[in-house]
Hints:
Blueprint: E1 2-4, E2 9-11, E3 14-16, E4 23-26, E5 32-34, E6 37-39, E7 46-49, E8 54-56, E9 59-61, E10 66-71, E11 74-79, E12 82-84, E13 89-94, E14 97-101, E15 104-106, E16 113-116, E17 122-124, E18 127-129, E19 136-139, E20 144-146, E21 149-151, E22 158-162, E23 167-169, E24 172-174, E25 181-183
Parallel strand pairs: 1-4, 2-5, 3-6, 4-7, 5-8, 6-9, 7-10, 8-11, 9-12, 10-13, 11-14, 12-15, 13-16, 14-17, 15-18, 16-19, 17-20, 18-21, 19-22, 20-23, 21-24, 22-25
Amino acid sequence: ISTTNSTGSFTGNTVNGNLAFGISLNASNVNTVSGNTISGNSNDGLVLNGNNNTLLNNTVSGNSGLGISVAYGTGNQITDNTVGTNTLGGISITNSTGNLTGNSVMGNLAFGISLGTSNNNIVSENEISDNTSQGIIINGNANHVSNNSIFNNGAPGVFIASGNNNSILSNSIYDNDSLGIDLAEGTNDSQ
């Protein structure tokens, strides 16, 4: 499924085994993508470029790229999705601001959640476990990470690679294969 400049609802689909993306919404605002099973595609499972979209209760697994990729958007809500066993990582947020809540991000073959050049995101009440590398990677400022369970990842539970004023509060972080929280030199100076 691929669309550009759309507004609508994409619900209850099974999208698997395609030779490109599973679902791609480009320059699209105020869409709801819910209750879909997106698996075994040859690129990213669910790709979003736009504002004020809702990704709700999707299962995104076994894709050859990222599970969910969001770029250049604001106000997107990523809620109650199951994202696992994707080759390049679970959920990637790039140059975007939004909320990631209640997701299960488990068993991806790279990171769980990545905030890349992204500021003012809320990451809360997610379960992030058994990913091959970091549970959460942050490159950005003023992101708020709270009340998550982050465990059994193959690298630090939370890695702040760059940025300041990021808040890491009230999380349960344990049994990761390195530090629980790793701050790169010079990061988070104001915390």
